[in-house]
Design brief:
Chain lengths: ~525, ~325
């Protein structure tokens, strides 16, 4: 039986679920073990080292950083008690909350923060790019950390607050221990994974489970909980993340009650999970965009006219409808940031291009004016993420009608993620690109990321976003970034892919988001 | 016999070396970068290059091969997993228990069901029983294990809540729990093996039942059950043994799929995930482990031939 048909049959059959009536939301309770089925084992839990989603979903329960985001996606203090920007946006002073302890019992001091900050700079090319004007980073006393720059900087605070490759704080002793002979940082592993978060790592058996337990010495913030900001309560005794690689087995495990929560569920399971009264299922954002990224270093797509012709050749609505069985699972929008990102979401900028409508004749005419003469174009994609393959299939067919000689090269994700670093191996590659919390944080807008978007206009705008401190001005620059995007089309951005969030109704306090914040969550069973 | 076993073990050395070389070359010529996967989707080309250098992956392939082989041969060190934060030997050893138990239970089920059904079909040849048994055997052979596994999960885990849908509990935490977690996966791989064993047992049993010495035993007035189980079965099992050895080997291969479907942290899943992650040291170590296992199973089967068939002698 072909695999898609087999999967469809199984999904249909799996609707025989174990049912239990849901109840009214009770007040928080302490105790219990939450079992979470994950799609993969994390490659590591050191968030400065890894940028994978599964690492983030586990590690963010264990590690904390200086700043975070609230529900309106505004910057809010986390380990910092306060922070101040002075000297025209060139000096940043952080004061820490007293009494914050690491999981090994040691009190967090500015030496730990300084050490973690230096490690972050060494490991994150994005951090280095944003802080290239840094003149000093010092810890003048036990609870103060100061960063001085030679130029005003509006991207530094967001970079500390956003989830991706965040500057989590490790004990300095751990950082000193995890260096190679030349002093370069090594990945932090095993018992050295010591943070300040509400849960601590108790045990990690690769490919079997990651076990987190409540950190009894956790120092919560006093403010009310507000998304990632505010008070964090570790209600659960234990959280156990169990890798269950097969999508349908995760769905079955959730229905049977073996798992309280399952991550990365296939969107096709939405209807059956929604129909099960024992399970809370909803589609949540913010999403990442389904895209085909052009190779802008070599080949025909270096020419912006060829990229514009490609965009005219495709119909984003048809591509997304082809990629997903259920229209609830995607959004059609020109916004680079989903509406959940609040001040950064601009649904009306670029609409003229995004919603222009497919125009094959115009695309063909535009293409004729370029130097592209029907050379073969390789679109590298993967079936490991069904939407990537399906969107590439529909879009490449549409592009062929306009005169593009596109051929899909299908392989596993490991090959795509490797080949996309080599400009000689492709003209387009499939991936998902999400907004990461600030216009400067999306790797696809930096020249060093595969696809190599190295446009002078974009670079200038990016530099301005980094150098501008005033929020209203940054917002205007972000709008310019989006306008520029729809003018230069660095990649085909078909639409926003949303996430199926599903968990047993025994779980309470879950925040509807595509990331999983398990503090403030409790079990009623 | 001892000399024969010694010769076979010595003969396996070049075979294992060839396997080691092949798997090293195959793992490296397959496109894909373990570091790009390790660092995640947002990692820049610069970050990836830095970690590749740290792991020694930027060195020429012959240098990497020489280093790996010398460590493996001289120090029995298969290297460190890029992903699992431990040595390859540790990673493999930790996963032997679930795979061994799963394969053993699956093989026991396959042999018990397959031989019994094969005898039943042969004794009742060309009857409804024969037809039904052969149809079941064909079904067992034909249904893909991932689909059969999911159907078992649906029925016994989701609907009846008799067995867990996935996971594994080590033996040290209690045999009962281990068996509960292994029941559905063992049935999944056992049924496929039972199908082929039943067909071969039936066929060889029919040949033996027609043999003159069986006719003689019957004409002496020996009871039918005694003739079948005491006189015919031992000879009928000789061709079946060959199939059983191949089936056990294929059961080990079957764990690749079944361990993934049932989320069992065994060697099969380790291989699948290591290939997906391009975790070269683990791929190399695991394939060599499986190659050694095949050599061992074949050797044991050859020794068993000598035990079952007095005509077979190796000295």
């Amino acid at each position: 039986m072909p695999r898609p048909l087999a999967c469809a049959v199984c999904i249909a059959i799996l609707t025989f679920g174990a049912l239990a009536p849901g109840g009214a939301q009770p007040s928080p309770q302490r105790g219990g073990v939450m079992r979470v089925a994950t799609n993969a084992d994390p490659p590591g839990l050191d968030l400065m080292w890894q940028t994978s989603t599964i690492s983030l979903n586990i590690s963010q329960q264990v590690f904390e950083t200086l700043l975070t985001l609230d529900a309106q996606k505004r910057i809010a203090p986390e380990l910092a008690e306060s922070y101040a920007v002075s000297n025209g946006g060139k000096t940043f002073t952080f004061k820490f909350r007293p009494g914050v302890k690491f999981h090994n019992g040691a009190e967090m001091t500015s030496a730990d923060v300084l050490g973690s900050f230096q490690r972050w700079l060494a490991l994150s090319s994005r951090a280095r790019q944003i802080l290239k004007d840094m003149t000093s980073a010092t810890a003048p006393d036990k609870s103060t950390f100061v960063v001085e720059l030679s130029q005003p900087n509006g991207a530094f605070l967001p970079a500390l607050a956003i989830p991706n490759q965040r500057m989590v704080v490790f004990p300095k002793s751990v950082l000193d221990k995890n260096r190679d002979s030349s002093g370069k940082p090594l990945e932090v592993k095993g018992t050295d994974l010591i943070g300040t978060g509400p849960y601590r790592l108790a045990e990690w058996k690769p490919d079997q489970y990651v076990r987190l337990v409540r950190f009894a010495g956790y120092a919560s913030r006093p403010e009310p909980s507000n998304y990632m900001a505010g008070a964090r309560h570790a209600y659960l005794d234990e959280i156990r993340f169990v890798p269950v690689p097969d999508d349908l087995t995760r769905v079955a495990g959730l229905i049977s009650g073996e798992y309280d929560l399952a991550l990365s569920l296939p969107g096709s399971a939405y209807d059956q999970l929604k129909a099960n009264p024992a399970i809370a299922a909803q589609i949540v954002g913010p999403g990442s965009a389904a895209v085909g990224v052009f190779n802008k270093k070599r080949g025909p797509f270096v020419d912006v006219q060829v990229r514009r012709a490609a965009w005219l050749a495709v119909d984003p609505q048809k591509v997304m409808a082809g990629a997903f069985d259920n229209a609830l699972l995607y959004r059609l929008t020109p916004a680079l940031a989903g509406k959940e990102w609040g001040v950064w979401a601009f649904p009306n900028v670029g609409t003229d291009v995004y919603a222009h409508g497919r125009d094959v004749a115009k695309a063909r005419d535009l293409l004729r004016e370029t130097t592209y003469k029907g050379e073969p174009l390789r679109w590298i994609t993967t079936r490991d993420y069904a939407y990537m393959y399906r969107s590439a299939l529909v879009a490449s067919d549409e592009m062929k009608e306009a005169g593009f000689n596109v051929r899909l090269v299908v392989s596993d994700w490991a090959t795509v993620i490797s080949d996309r670093n080599n400009p000689d191996r492709y003209e387009i590659f499939s991936t998902g690109i999400g907004f990461e919390g600030d216009p400067t944080s999306t790797a696809a807008f930096t020249p060093g990321w595969p696809g190599w978007y190295d446009s002078p206009r974009n670079n200038k705008n990016y530099e301005a976003l980094v150098a501008t401190v005033e929020p209203a001005k940054r917002r205007e620059l972000a709008k310019d970034q989006q306008r520029l995007f729809w003018d230069e089309i660095p990649y085909l951005r078909f639409g926003e892919v949303l996430t199926l969030l599903a968990y047993r109704r025994s779980i309470q306090g879950m925040y509807p988001d595509n990331s999983y914040y398990l503090w403030n969550v409790w079990l009623t069973k | 016999m001892a000399r024969y076993i010694g010769r076979r073990v010595f003969g396996a050395v070049p075979l294992v070396l060839i396997v080691a070389t092949l798997v090293f070359v195959l793992a490296r010529i397959v496109p894909g970068d373990p570091v790009a996967l390790l660092l995640g989707d947002q990692a820049s080309t610069e970050d990836i290059a830095r970690i590749r250098a740290q792991l020694g992956l930027d060195r020429p392939l012959p240098v990497q091969y020489a280093l790996w082989l010398s460590r493996a041969v001289l120090h029995l060190d298969m290297g460190q997993s890029f992903y699992l934060k431990r040595s390859v030997v540790q990673a493999i050893v930790q996963r032997i228990e679930p795979t061994f138990l799963l394969a053993a239970l699956g093989a026991a089920l396959a042999i018990a069901i397959g031989v019994s059904l094969g005898i039943l079909a042969a004794v009742h040849r060309n009857t409804v029983v024969d037809g039904a048994v052969m149809m079941m055997a064909l079904a067992g052979l034909s249904v893909p294990s991932f689909l059969f596994g999911l159907i078992l999960i649906l029925v016994f885990a989701v609907h009846f809540h008799v067995f867990p849908s996935s996971g594994y509990v080590p033996v040290q935490d209690g045999w009962t729990a281990t068996l509960r977690y292994l029941a559905l996966p063992a049935v999944t791989i056992g049924v496929g093996g039972a199908g082929i064993i039943a067909r071969i047992t039936r066929s060889s049993m029919l040949d033996v039942l027609r043999a003159p010495y069986v006719q003689t035993a019957r004409s002496k007035g020996l009871p039918g059950r005694g003739v079948v189980l005491k006189h015919a079965l031992r000879n009928a099992l000789i061709p079946t043994m060959t199939v059983i050895s191949l089936t056990i080997a294929s059961l080990v291969a079957g764990t690749l799929v079944v361990e993934t479907v049932f989320a069992i942290p065994g060697s099969g899943r380790l291989v699948v995930q290591s290939v997906a992650r391009r975790d070269y040291p683990v791929i190399q170590g695991a394939v060599m482990f499986v190659a050694l296992l095949y050599v061992l199973v074949n050797l044991i089967m050859d020794v068993l031939y000598a035990y079952l068939d007095p005509r077979v002698r190796y000295d």
